[in-house]
Amino acid sequence: MEFEEDIIHRKLSPKLIGQILSFLPTRDAVRTSVLSKKWAKNWTFITKMDIDDGLYYDESHSIQNCTRCKDECNWEFYVSDKECYIEHHVLNNNGTNLRPTELREVKVGGGKKFGEHFIKFVYKALLLTQQNNPNSSMLERFSLVIDNRHDIDHLNTWISHILKRGVKNLKIHSPFFKIPFYDSTSSYLLNSTLLEGLEFVLRMFTIINVPTNSVHFGHLKHLKLFGIFFDLSSDIFTLSLPTLKTFVIKNCDWSIGKELNVEASLLEVIFIHQDFIDLPGRSIKFNASCLKEFSYYGDGISHQINLSGCGFLSNASVKISLKECENIIPNTYCFAFQLFHHFHQVKCIKLEGSEVLTQSEVVYPVNALPELGNLIHLEIGLVSIEVVLGLLQRSPVLKTIVLKKIRMFDKERLNLAAVPECLISALQIVKFQNINGDKQELLLAEFFLEKGKMLKRMSFYIDPKLIKFESVADFIQKKNFVVVND
């Protein structure tokens, strides 16, 4: 064994061995190195660090059950005399269920020892990878996953240290605990011009102070931010990202009345996901010339999204999914209508919850939508007949339409409707998905069969357990269609 180690150590430089060890999680890289005296310091040459505090705890002490809500919770969680939250659970104290009023910051044994061990390891790893190997002072990648509570001073020190070393790809995940960024940490982040990839998945809201009106990341290609609040000092804040390819944000926010301006000429993918009902007054504007995908998910559209400075490629696609909720976010109708005016170039549109297009039809009528001259594939769900007909009228070259749930309508509405151009010269495929077998769905199917001069295929995706399955099956059988049971 020792002879084999000598051969490897002689033929491979410490730097190359460090690059090989970089493919392992940092803890495993250290463990591998210390197996041999000659390799003991080779792990300090790694150029990629992956640190996960979940690898350092004793599983036998890690899980307890809340005596109130019965959910499992990590041993680092505190308790409360109020309702159970993710952070506040009523723990079982050695088999004795304590009353909420008797509880005080209870922790399961082993947490302190774990925390000290993990903190020492991180500091040692950061120090030795820089001290013992000056060439690795700039890291290719640093990944930090935090699932347990740690002192904020330590976390800010680690993040600042990594940013000062000119890391190229930075990933920080802390979905359960907030990591308040110190002003110095925010400053190091905003001045990290060598970043190529940035991924923050943090608990809402981690505040990043932005004391300037613009920030330039000349090498950033991928940006993913969850749970960030930008405290903006200027009315318009510009993110200059000349090499950015993907822009992904979830539950991010910024100061009321401020505009976020994203300058990214090479941007291809925009993904926005908002799970909370926000206050109006935020806006975000994109300037990009070659968009391939735009996606939005949420309870409504809480931000004004301006795509007027964007160009969509010929094969571009759009997906908007709005949840069904009683109290829809204010301005959703307006913002949804405005968005559609930017989609006249795209070939594929998928909409869920698109009934918002007709909730305020006097102000935002469907027939005022722009012509979707390149659209060949359309998927719409939870829609009114006005939306169906309106979009068909605005899509002259549409070839495929997928319908998921149709709202009730009067048959006379179809009889009086003008035949859309696409039904005469383009539409070939009609798919009904997740249907209930209601009358309006069969009426619409008849409409497509009668008016669709180019129609080649109509499909129904239904559940045979539905009460109205037989009526749909009879209709399909008469038309010689195929039933697909999911």
UniProtKB/TrEMBL annotation:
Pfam families: F-box (PF00646), FBD (PF08387). Residues 421-485 form the FBD domain. It comes from the Eukaryota. Coiled coil: none annotated. SMART domains: FBD. PANTHER family: F-BOX/RNI SUPERFAMILY PROTEIN-RELATED (PTHR31900), F-BOX_RNI_FBD-LIKE DOMAIN PROTEIN (PTHR31900:SF32). This is F-box/FBD/LRR protein. The lineage of its organism: Eukaryota, Viridiplantae, Streptophyta, Embryophyta, Tracheophyta.
